[in-house]
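User: I'm curious whether this sequence folds into something compact or stays loose and floppy. Could you predict its structure so I can see for myself?
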Amino acid sequence: MDNLGGIIQRAVYLGVGLASYAGEKARQKFTELRIEVQKLADEMVKRGEMTTEEARGFVEDMMNKSMMQETPVDLSPETRPNEPRRIEILSEDESSSDSNSTAVDQMRQEVHKLQEELRRLQKE
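Assistant: Here's the prediction. I'll summarize afterward.
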């Protein structure tokens, strides 16, 4: 049991360390981004394409947009998990009608039959 506790403790430390590292990298990237955006804004002010107030607003707007941006979820065939999605029937709604209740009972019986068939096939 002591070994299991040590493994769990190391896993927690690893998670905390990874979160800290990711946070530090994100701060570095945002700092680099702010510097680049500020350089761009300064250049545009120097050329007379915008005022200093517009440049300040531009930098703040770009930083706010970059913080709000989320990475899109990619569910292409290469990134999907190899195992099937688990579906769990938690409970029936007590206010459901009898026909729904009967259908649910039939589905449960069918699921149990299929599970038994799967277990039987796995034993062979």
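Summary: Residues 88-124 form one domain. Residues 44 and 50 are 6 Å apart (CA to CA).
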